[in-house]
Amino acid sequence: MATTPAPDSSSSLSITVETNPSAARLSELGIQSWPKWGCPPGKYMLKFDAEETCYLVRGKVKVYPKGSSEFVEFGAGDLVIIPQGLSCTWDVSVAIDKHYKFAASSSSSSS
Q1: How far is it, in rounded angstroms, from Cα 84 to Cα 46?
Q2: Which CATH class is domain 16-104?
Q3: Where are the domains positioned within the chain?
Q4: (S)-ureidoglycine aminohydrolase cupin domain location, by residue (predicted)?
Q5: Contact in structure between 99 and 54 (CB atoms under 8 Å)
Q6: Average pLDDT of the segment spanning 5-29
Q7: How far apart are alpha carbons 103 and 49 in whole angstroms?
Q8: In a 3-state reduction of DSSP, which class is residue 45?
Q9: What is the pTM of this model?
Q10: What is the pLDDT of residues 86-107, one digit of tens each?
Q11: Which residues pair with 46 in a beta bridge?
């Protein structure tokens, strides 16, 4: 039997996926002004040093957080928030084309 960790577990960094957000929501976020990034199918090991919000224009990926046998799957039309500190493997089955934005670091803005 598989067990699922509690969603509020402080030891897990969870990925948030918003499926098919409205055009008004995308406009409010300013998605079209964000930089773009893409990659071909393959496996990529990534570490997120800052929280990333991204919107997939095309593609499909399964993200496996390091040390977990579970994965989060998302694709074209999804708005995704990836937490700071997450180390993971992206298993890209359909080439990715996305808009992305990293959260500003609060530690660098103190005066």
Answers
A1: 12
A2: mainly beta
A3: 16-104
A4: 27-100
A5: yes
A6: 79
A7: 10
A8: strand
A9: 0.82
A10: 999 999 999 999 999 999 755 4
A11: 88
